[in-house]
Amino acid sequence: MELREGTPRYEAYYAAHPSRKAADDAARAAKGPYAGDEPRRRIVDATFGLLEQMRPLARGEPSGERMDISPDTARTELEALAKGYGAVMFGTAVLGEACFYGIRGRGEEYGREATVIGRTGVVFAVRMAPAEIAAAPEPRAAAEVVNGYARVALVGLVLARCIRGWGWNASCTMDGRADVVLPVAARYAGLGSIGRSGILLTEEFGPCLRLGAVVTDLPLARTPRSAGTEARLCSTCSLCAKACPAGAIDGGTASSGRFKPVNDDACFAKWKEFGTDCGLCIASCPLSRVGRVSGSGVVGP
Ligand code: SF4
Ligand code: SF4
Description:
- By secondary structure, the chain is α+β, with helices and mostly antiparallel strands.
- It has two domains: 57-216, no CATH class; 230-299, no CATH class.
- It is 36% helix and 11% strand.
- It contains ten helices and eight strands.
- Strands 1-2-6-3 form a four-stranded antiparallel sheet, with helices on both faces. A two-stranded antiparallel ribbon has the order 4-5. A two-stranded antiparallel sheet has the order 7-8.
- Helix 3 packs parallel to helix 6 (139-165) and helix 4 runs antiparallel to helix 6.
- The longest helix is centred in the middle third of the chain and has 27 residues, at 139-165.
- The termini are far apart.
- Residues 290-301 have low confidence and may be disordered.
- One iron/sulfur cluster binds next to helix 8.
């Protein structure tokens, strides 16, 4: 939690949202999930500390003369680079308005209007270990999530640096520094579709991924959009809704092809209660563990 008692931002936030203070105070007073597991607590703190130090690298000026590189070549090179650094999925797209945040939500830029440096999105994902995520909401699962934040940030920072080295603008979305709404950008970039739980479902890895993105003005060949077959399973499955301890995921039928949006406030309140990310919706999804979806259900393992 970034809000520090006695600061102007703390006062302004709770003046605007008085109903949130009691739950936030309880979360601040809670011992957290790592009480009694000091080594793991320090590992997680170390990773978040590293991410904080990496954040200023997310943006920067292009270096050198703008290179003339074909959209196909640029895409091929970036995909190879991302996969070399551990990405298991990669896609590109011209991002629509729905992909971008309008206002900055964290850090020193809190409350400021977001600027968009380009419309080309490079979206990628690293795998989270299903065996660790299956332990959600235990600390093991939360530690794997944090590990994913760090690995996907490294991929994004390298890609952004490379694009800047080619003389184009590039900004990396990473933990605590987001330009884009990742699941929406990932859908644009052809990685998968958004199902009942509001997170990206992919054919190969289900939702058991950590997403990252780079926004740039460099023209890139596009990835065809996913046909959305992953989310078809959601019409006959509601395991995530049943598993959600916050009741944040609706278990009903879709209307006009869309499920009711996830109740983000209820979800976040549960995170605060647990003292960490929850992840039960990812752990409970059959697509997290099996490889493919058929028209009528899950095939595999
Ligand atoms: S993270 Fe947990 S609380 Fe939030 S939607 Fe998923 S299961 Fe529900
Ligand atoms: S658990 Fe079932 S309903 Fe929920 S996202 Fe996964 S496939 Fe869809």
